[in-house]
């Protein structure tokens, strides 16, 4: 079976994008880009100094400020080796560019099941949703009982090993970031992770083929990530944007950096102090782009609520407790629509 993917359109040489990919005017990217502002400097870049204890106080302060002001930042000297990062990008690119669509389709995910594992293009289960100009491979990587590398690409031959190694290292980085986020909120270092419970990690390799009409499309529509913390690396093409104070700000590619996104469950746990960041990717007509996102999430049965230590009569809970799996299924059936559909439905109306 050949699945319906963007790469097929691209290889067929379409000069006009099919109507399902055309965004409504209010969602289209800016052409030309917005005028420069202080924000165009981009999201904060935080040197983690390989978590050297000497720098920890300073790092924690910067991280707390980045979480509350942006919900996103890039980290350098994070402990993931540049050779491993390069290997992950290389195996991902090799799979997308050197295997035929028919070969890749052997790994097709189920387009009607939310976040199913494998190769695909349609993110939302909803039939009438506007499609992203993106193909992807979603891997279920952690806990170990979810991980079955035989379901991942067999070519290139080091694909599975590289992805497993990356998964293990990124979980450790996500845990360190969660503990620093907890501390920067004045909580015990284990607080966020204790509420999240056993980390469920998915890794998505996204491939954005060149698009003949980038002014009409999005590589990935505006959304916030729904789990706890997402870690992303992108190649040097650029296209990722975060939404801040009414405008879209480009996340400049920075070699060897990892982008950290505060996701919805951290917004809830922090009782709104660390809002999840709305982001999207724009397309371009010249170069294909590759990114690798690693999502660190609670299990579907986990109940998530604001940390008790952040709630009192002066600062009442701003979100209802909710089972994470319901959040996930609402997201995939209703669509992200900014954040309104899902996370805003959990908001409690305090003055
Ligand atoms: O490709 C990107 O830069 C963004 C990907 C993303 O936001 C996601 O996978 O959730
Ligand atoms: Fe995302």
From TrEMBL:
Show the InterPro entries listed in the entry: DIOX_N (IPR026992), IPNS-like_FE2OG_OXY (IPR044861), IPNS-like_sf (IPR027443), Oxoglu/Fe-dep_dioxygenase_dom (IPR005123), Plant_2OG-oxidoreductases (IPR050295)
The molecular function terms of the Gene Ontology recorded here are:
metal ion binding; oxidoreductase activity
Task: Give the keywords, sorted.
Answer: Iron, Metal-binding, Oxidoreductase
Superkingdom per UniProt = Eukaryota
The record's listing under Pfam families reads: 2OG-FeII_Oxy (PF03171), DIOX_N (PF14226)
Where is this chain compositionally biased, Pro residues type? 26-37
Limits of the Fe2OG dioxygenase domain: 198-298
Coiled-coil annotated residue ranges, if any: none
Region (Disordered) spans which residues?
19-39
Give the family from UniProt: Belongs to the iron/ascorbate-dependent oxidoreductase family.
The molecule here is called Fe2OG dioxygenase domain-containing protein
Give the classification, highest ranks: Eukaryota, Viridiplantae, Streptophyta, Embryophyta, Tracheophyta
């Amino acid at each position: 079976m050949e699945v319906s993917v963007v790469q097929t359109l691209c290889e067929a040489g379409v000069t006009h994008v099919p109507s399902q990919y055309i965004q409504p005017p209010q969602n289209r990217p800016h052409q030309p880009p917005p005028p420069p502002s202080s924000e165009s400097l981009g999201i904060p870049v935080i040197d983690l100094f390989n978590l050297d204890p000497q720098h920890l106080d300073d790092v924690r302060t910067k991280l707390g400020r980045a979480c509350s002001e942006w919900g996103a930042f890039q980290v350098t000297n994070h402990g993931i080796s540049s050779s491993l990062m390069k290997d992950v990008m290389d195996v991902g690119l090799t799979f997308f560019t050197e295997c035929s669509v028919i070969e890749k389709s052997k790994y097709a995910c189920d387009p009607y099941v939310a976040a199913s594992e494998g190769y695909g293009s349609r993110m939302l289960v909803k039939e009438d949703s506007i499609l992203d100009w993106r193909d992807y491979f979603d891997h279920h990587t952690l806990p170990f009982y979810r991980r079955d590398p035989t379901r991942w690409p067999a070519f290139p031959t080091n694909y599975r090993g590289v992805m497993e190694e990356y998964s293990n290292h990124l979980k450790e980085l996500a845990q360190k970031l969660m503990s620093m986020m907890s501390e920067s909120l004045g909580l015990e270092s284990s607080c966020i992770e204790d509420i999240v419970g056993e980390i469920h990690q998915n890794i998505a390799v996204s491939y954005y083929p060149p698009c003949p009409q980038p002014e009409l499309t999005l590589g990935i529509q505006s959304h916030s990530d729904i789990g706890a913390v997402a870690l992303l690396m992108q190649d040097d093409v650029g296209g990722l944007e975060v939404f801040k104070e009414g405008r879209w700000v480009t996340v400049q590619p920075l070699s060897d950096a990892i982008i950290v996104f505060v996701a919805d469950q951290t917004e809830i746990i922090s009782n709104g102090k660390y809002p999840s960041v709305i982001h999207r990717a724009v397309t371009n007509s010249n170069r294909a782009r590759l990114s690798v996102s690693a999502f660190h999430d609670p299990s579907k049965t986990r109940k998530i609520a604001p940390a008790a230590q952040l709630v009192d009569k002066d600062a009442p809970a701003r979100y209802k407790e909710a089972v994470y799996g319901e959040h996930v299924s609402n997201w995939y059936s209703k669509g992200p629509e900014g954040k309104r559909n899902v996370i805003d439905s959990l908001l409690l109306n305090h003055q």
